[in-house]
Amino acid sequence: xxxxxxxxxxxxxxxxxxxxxxxxxxxxxxxxxxxxxxxxxxxxxxxxxxxxxxxxxxxxxxxxxxxxxxxxxxxxxxxxxxxxxxxxxxxxxxxxxxxxxxxxxxxxxxxxxxxxxxxxxxxxxxxxxxxxxxxxxxxxxxxxxxxx
Length: 148
Fold this sequence. Notes:
By secondary structure, the protein is mostly helical. 72% of the residues lie in helices and 0% in strands. The chain is built from 9 helices and no strands. α2 packs across α4 (59-70). The chain starts with 5 loop residues before the first helix and ends in a 5-residue tail after the last helix.
């Protein structure tokens, strides 16, 4: 079990309260698909994602980005049991979708970049970034837990 300090909990909850999942989610998923093009293989049913412009303008990419980012709400609400909160989602990505678990880490990095770019150093300062990245690392670990 992860140990959270009161300051970490406060930083994560404060930052989460400022995040617009409909903005950050699509940005982060687009960034993932553009910067790490091999991740596109999991989104073949999303239509045209053959160019950066196609990815950025793809409604299915944007909708899934919002869904993924919104899914972090489960972790915020279950900070003391993130591992179990993501069991079914981990199983789905492992057994049905066959996502490389390292892709979760890559997406977490993209999310952090988008959050940092949105809020800047006054909100996303060193302490907030440290807590946020610890939080995302725990989520990534939970998502990769059901892999064999």
